[in-house]
Amino acid sequence: MAPTQNAPNSLYRTTEGLGVWEHKGKVAAVGIGHSPTARRWDERLESSIGSWAILALRNAMEDAGVSPDQVDGLVVVPAATTGDLWSPTNPIPEDFAKAYTPTDNLNDGLSSMSAEWILKNMPELSNVQFTMHARTCMSDAVVVAAQAVGDGLTKTCLVLKTWNNLSGRYGHDSGSNALDDAPGASQWTNPWGWGAAAITFAYLFDQYCRKYGKNHDMLAPFVVNEKRNGLLFPEGFWAQHRPEALTVEDYLTSRWVAKPANLYDCDLPIQIAVAYLFTTADRAKDMKQPPAYILNHASDRTKVKSSVQTLDECEQATDSTGRKIYEGAGITASDLSFENMYDGYTLFHQFHIEGLKYAGIERGEALDLYQTDISIEGPNPVSPSGGNAGSGRTRTWMHTDCIQQLQGRAGARQIKKKAEIGVSGGPTTTGGNFTVWSATPD
């Protein structure tokens, strides 16, 4: 089999004016597979991301009622670590080395993940002919897999994203934090701590509040709602390990991380593997679970003009994303039953939903919406997944919840209004991938 290629730009819908997606309603998600969760890897074989990736993929196939020999495609996100990389000076754990067949990258299965590693260690996937690597996160992989199935590159495709969280300080030994200097444009930001995403979005949120006359306390109902929904997500970290409700007082009195971002505005890095199974609409009708059809996908690749994105750039990008989402799906804002936009920092969820005009809101009105009933029981459910703030940093909860809501199997999180169309995606306001899901193909 030829080496796995990175997803080409042609698979992404990045511009306005493309019209309705040519594969609208012809691709569906039919299987979900989650591993357990952990705060950090305990360096046991059975809890490595390699082990959990295999478990998640098998769970997704079982959930869909699909045998491994029926799978002909695999989309994987190679970037798998949320904190430090496995140091090259650390020996590969002996039990891991004995249990799995390595690739040329010895970090595979430990702090990175490749399609090649999966196929070497899951021989049952013997009929896979199409493999592709997606960028960054599950939102990207979902888009790539949807387009690949629609284009006929694969008919029954597994989609995988893993997150590893090793011990040690977050990002201390990797990325820009590990460098002795600050090259390029980062010389104007990183020495003062600006490279941290929390600071970037704290700044944008502060500008947002100044522009529209809002304040940080108005986020409290949203963040409390996120934690409540997350505790109703049995696959989530908080539900599994720390089933503690968050009160408004807890939120308002929490310490600042980067004012106006407090502790509960930042998601918690965890370890997990998540997989989905996509197939054609025709095949989906005969699967074990009801299909969650994909009406459209859209991506944003906005280039900011300076080293720091401005509020205007943020709002222009999310407005454009909203238009692309609706144009490609052939729907309007009023057709959404719920939304599951990204919230890794709670401070930018409002940018996403204002771009969508969700529940009829305009710019500057999202925090007002938060003061109304945004619960799963209410008329305008906001982030019924609980997002990353409610279940741990994976960037996958929003997709899982959309699929489950439309299949009618979200359990205690099931929204009370009829779940017909939902939207998910992220991560950031000027760079992300978004998917429109539907209970019907039309």
Describe the structure concisely.
By secondary structure, this protein is an alpha/beta fold. Helix content is 30%, strand content 16%.
Description of the structure:
- It is a single chain.
- The chain folds into 2 domains: 5-170 and 269-284, Thiolase/Chalcone synthase (Peroxisomal Thiolase, Chain A, domain 1), CATH 3.40.47.10; 195-268 and 292-442, 3-Layer(aba) Sandwich (Peroxisomal Thiolase, Chain A, domain 1).
- The chain has helices spanning 49-64, 94-99, 115-121, 138-150, 197-212, 220-231, 237-241, 248-252, 281-284, 311-329, 349-356, 366-370, 387-391, 397-407; strands at 5-6, 27-34, 73-76, 130-133, 156-163, 256-258, 261-262, 272-280, 292-300, 338-341, 421-428, 431-438.
- The chain has 442 residues and is of the alpha/beta class.
- The model has no long low-confidence stretch (mean pLDDT 93).
- The strands form 2 sheets. A 10-stranded mixed beta sheet has the order 1-4-3-5-8-2-9-12-11-10, sandwiched between helices.
- It has 14 helices and 12 strands.
